[in-house]
Write a sequence for this structure.
């Protein structure tokens, strides 16, 4: 075979995607697997969102959209920031992409030169370091600890800053830890970045899924140096529809749009109409989010209590729909432990390796209570 590039040879497959695929393959072969792998709501999107997509099909609104996303959707995104976060943006400060993942990829490509550093609190989402490296950058993890609820220490971040630091990434609520950063932590991190003219990338995908504590928009402290990464997947259960959006300074958004215009063009047109409805039909969407949050909260408590009672230490996270469980009782190597769980107990989890969480695994509780009880029983049996 002719050659592959060096950067692609070095690129690892996403382990969230890989372990989810593994669990689904086993399911397809007829095994009853409880998949707690992908972070994917098990709810269907709200009816008004479906209706908007159906109406768009009926009207034949199927053509290309602008590379930066439809104007009406970017306006609706501005409305969301005004209403929910007291942040004022204009449509030219918004980009719509194929999932939050593409917003983030565009952004790293737009700001990093070879050797530039990006500080990321760890455990982190698996795709951050991979995307940073693809853009020529260097990921700089700053460890957080389960006993601190995985909230980063601003002082530890300050120590990690060098002349090459271009971005500090914050992700609250966090994937994979579920940590919700207190207001003073967000403020301290943003202010130390702003003083040094470092970008803040704020991955806010889980904003709406907070059970205790409050969401603090980083952009409230330095809007001109912050890029918000957001999307429709988690709050509105629109994962496969692939709509993410970014909000930031006009020049950055323009640069990201140039890249997107060459790489993929505008995101899916029908899905954009659906997300307009999700953002603009405020009351209906709010009711949907409240309904899902109530379910997630109950599931979180059952799962955390259950895992701890089995001797798998698991902090109770304040947001998102993940827990990080210590699997060392099963095996000291977390990948072996995850494989044991999948192959012997038929419970799919994502090992902590690529999240920079040795000895641990991520379990998603975006699955039914019945499945959670089933998973706990199976893990108990395996441990016994
Ligand atoms: N963000 C979700 C997760 O962490 C979806 C999979 C992915 O894109 O990594 O499971």
């Amino acid at each position: 075979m002719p050659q592959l590039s060096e950067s692609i040879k070095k690129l690892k497959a996403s382990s969230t995607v890989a372990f989810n695929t593994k669990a689904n393959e086993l399911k397809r072969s007829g095994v009853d697997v409880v998949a707690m792998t992908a972070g994917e709501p098990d709810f269907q999107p709200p009816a008004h969102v479906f209706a908007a997509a159906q109406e768009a099909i009926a009207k034949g609104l199927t053509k290309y959209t602008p590379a930066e996303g439809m104007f009406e959707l970017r306006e609706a995104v501005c409305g969301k920031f005004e209403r929910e976060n007291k942040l004022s943006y204009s449509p030219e400060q918004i980009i719509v992409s194929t999932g939050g993942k593409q917003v983030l990829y565009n952004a790293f490509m737009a700001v990093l030169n070879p050797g530039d550093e990006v500080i990321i609190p760890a455990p982190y989402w698996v795709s951050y370091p991979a995307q940073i490296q693809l853009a020529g950058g260097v990921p700089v993890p700053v460890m957080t600890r389960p006993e601190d609820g995985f909230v980063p220490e601003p002082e530890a971040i300050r120590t990690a800053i060098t002349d090459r630091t271009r971005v500090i990434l914050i992700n609250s609520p966090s994937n994979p830890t579920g940590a919700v950063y207190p207001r003073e932590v967000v403020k301290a991190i943003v202010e130390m970045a702003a003083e040094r003219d470092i970008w803040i990338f704020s991955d806010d995908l889980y904003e709406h899924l907070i059970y205790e504590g409050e969401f603090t928009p980083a952009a409230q402290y330095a809007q001109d140096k912050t890029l918000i990464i957001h999307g429709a997947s988690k709050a509105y259960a629109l994962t496969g529809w692939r709509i993410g959006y970014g909000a930031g300074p006009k020049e950055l958004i323009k640069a990201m749009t140039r890249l997107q215009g060459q790489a993929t063009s505008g995101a899916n047109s029908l899905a954009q109409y659906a997300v307009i409805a999700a953002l603009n039909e405020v009351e209906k969407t709010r009711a949907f989010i409240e309904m899902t949050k109530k379910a997630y909260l109950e599931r979180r408590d059952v799962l955390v209590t259950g895992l701890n009672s089995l001797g798998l230490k698991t902090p109770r996270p304040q947001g998102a729909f993940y827990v990080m469980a210590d699997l060392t009782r099963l095996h000291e190597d977390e990948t072996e432990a995850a494989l044991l769980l999948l192959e012997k107990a038929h419970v799919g989890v994502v090992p902590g390796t690529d999240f920079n969480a040795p000895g641990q695994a991520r379990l998603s509780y975006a699955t039914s209570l019945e499945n959670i009880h089933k998973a706990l029983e199976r893990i108990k049996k395996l441990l016994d």
